[in-house]
């Protein structure tokens, strides 16, 4: 079977073997997969807005929005519709094609959903793709969001099943898989990735990518975050992950999920242009831009434009993506 087709029967050992390849061999293979499935000169641009900030009851060890950690973050209630629309217009006018709305909830209350649904409809009416990340969803909530016009739902696996307990104790890996199943069943696209640099091993990084690549359908978007060490969180003192190991993670994600958008997300602010260029070569083809990435910094729009110009990269137009349509597990499992 060629490297270029999606497959769902990856083993953990195969994922690890990719990580263990000589760096240039890995990058060569990843770039070949990337070029076969995408225009390597295009990068998709998304903007992320926190529509409800902080005071989250969960205990994710990396997150300044958890109510359990003293990070100095000011909690804010659900943002009014007009303000969300205003921010979405600015995002659209500065080149974003997808607008993601994030709320720090364990799970949305049913009474919160109509307001979010209204936001989704209003943002979509601006010609933007819509994405939301609101915590765990029931099947009915996923269906309600789909009916409101939501295109993507973000819910990350964060890390490997084995390391997960070191990061979060208030919800399980299975809870996450369940929400992803509801999102898929409702007919929305999934955005699902993880965070690296949380003290996990290479085997855990391979385990995360293995979990993602063996889901019933590869996530349409795979955000790969590099831990932002926020003072006051339990992970504030983690050692920084080696930059080349981060590039390896991107490259392995590209090979294992050849038609997914692999996104550079949190942690990009601290990446040099050279590191980002290597990530794009390794198969990253999506970024978040804008002033804030939920509650941590993100390179400003001007810096991104300059980087794109230096690299000869163009922003991907809306509703474009893989050169081939998404293929699901049921027809490729045997491959
Ligand atoms: S990552 Fe999400 S669920 Fe976890 S503490 Fe932060 S806002 Fe809450």
From TrEMBL:
Record's keyword annotation contains Transferase: yes
Annotated function: Catalyzes the conversion of dethiobiotin (DTB) to biotin by the insertion of a sulfur atom into dethiobiotin via a radical-based mechanism.
Domain Radical SAM core span(s) in chain numbering: 41-259
Enzyme class: transferase
Cofactor(s) in the UniProt record: [2Fe-2S] cluster; [4Fe-4S] cluster
EC annotation from Swiss-Prot or TrEMBL: 2.8.1.6
Cofactor note: Binds 1 [2Fe-2S] cluster. The cluster is coordinated with 3 cysteines and 1 arginine.
PROSITE patterns per record: RADICAL_SAM
Alphabetized GO MF terms: 2 iron, 2 sulfur cluster binding; 4 iron, 4 sulfur cluster binding; biotin synthase activity; iron ion binding
Residues that, per the record, bind [4Fe-4S] cluster: 56, 60, 63
Gene: bioB
Protein name, as recorded: Biotin synthase
A Pfam family that the UniProt record links to this protein: Radical_SAM
Annotated CDD domains: Radical_SAM (cd01335)
Family of the protein in this entry: Belongs to the radical SAM superfamily. Biotin synthase family.
Pathway: Cofactor biosynthesis; biotin biosynthesis; biotin from 7,8-diaminononanoate: step 2/2
GO terms, biological process: biotin biosynthetic process
Taxonomic placement: Bacteria, Pseudomonadati, Pseudomonadota, Gammaproteobacteria, Lysobacterales
Binding-site positions, [2Fe-2S] cluster: 100, 131, 191, 263
Keywords annotated in UniProt: 2Fe-2S, 4Fe-4S, Biotin biosynthesis, Iron, Iron-sulfur, Metal-binding, S-adenosyl-L-methionine, Transferase
HAMAP family: BioB
InterPro entries documented for this protein: Aldolase_TIM (IPR013785), BATS_dom (IPR010722), Biotin_synth/BioAB (IPR002684), Biotin_synthase (IPR024177), Elp3/MiaA/NifB-like_rSAM (IPR006638), rSAM (IPR007197), rSAM_sf (IPR058240)
Reactions catalysed, as given in the entry: (4R,5S)-dethiobiotin + (sulfur carrier)-SH + 2 reduced [2Fe-2S]-[ferredoxin] + 2 S-adenosyl-L-methionine = (sulfur carrier)-H + biotin + 2 5'-deoxyadenosine + 2 L-methionine + 2 oxidized [2Fe-2S]-[ferredoxin]
Taxonomic source organism: Pseudofulvimonas gallinarii
PANTHER family according to UniProt: BIOTIN SYNTHASE (PTHR22976), BIOTIN SYNTHASE, MITOCHONDRIAL (PTHR22976:SF2)
Subunit structure: Homodimer.
Cited SUPFAM superfamilies: Radical SAM enzymes
Keyword Manganese in record: no
């Amino acid at each position: 079977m060629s490297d270029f087709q999606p497959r769902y029967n990856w083993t953990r050992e195969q994922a690890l073997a990719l990580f263990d390849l000589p760096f240039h061999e890995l990058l060569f293979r990843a770039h070949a997969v990337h070029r076969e499935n995408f225009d390597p000169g295009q990068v998709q641009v998304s903007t992320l807005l926190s529509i409800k900030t902080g005071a989250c009851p969960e205990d994710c060890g990396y997150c300044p929005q958890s109510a359990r950690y003293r990070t100095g973050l000011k909690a804010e209630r659900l943002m009014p519709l007009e303000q969300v629309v205003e921010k979405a217009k600015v995002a659209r006018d500065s080149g974003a094609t997808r607008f993601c709305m994030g709320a720090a909830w364990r799970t949305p209350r049913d009474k919160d959903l109509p307001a979010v649904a209204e936001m989704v409809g209003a943002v979509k009416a601006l010609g933007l793709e819509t994405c939301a990340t609101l915590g765990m969803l029931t099947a009915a909530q996923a269906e309600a969001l789909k009916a409101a016009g939501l295109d993507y739902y973000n819910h990350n696996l964060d890390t490997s099943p084995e390391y997960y307990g070191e990061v979060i104790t208030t919800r399980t890996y299975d809870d996450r898989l369940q929400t992803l199943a509801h999102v898929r069943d409702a007919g929305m696209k999934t955005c699902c990735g993880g965070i690296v640099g949380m003290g996990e091993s290479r085997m855990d990084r391979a385990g995360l990518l293995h979990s993602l690549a063996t889901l019933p359908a590869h996530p349409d978007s795979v955000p790969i975050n590099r831990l932002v060490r926020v003072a006051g969180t339990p992970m504030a003192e983690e050692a920084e992950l080696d930059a080349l190991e981060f590039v390896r993670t991107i490259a392995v994600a590209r090979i294992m999920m050849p038609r997914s958008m692999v996104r550079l997300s949190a942690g990009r602010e601290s990446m040099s242009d050279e590191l980002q260029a290597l990530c794009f070569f390794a198969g990253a083809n999506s970024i978040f831009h804008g002033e804030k990435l939920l509650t941590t910094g993100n390179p400003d729009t001007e810096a991104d434009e300059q980087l794109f110009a230096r690299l000869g990269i163009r922003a991907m137009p809306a509703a474009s993506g893989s050169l081939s349509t998404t293929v699901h597990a049921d027809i490729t499992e045997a491959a």
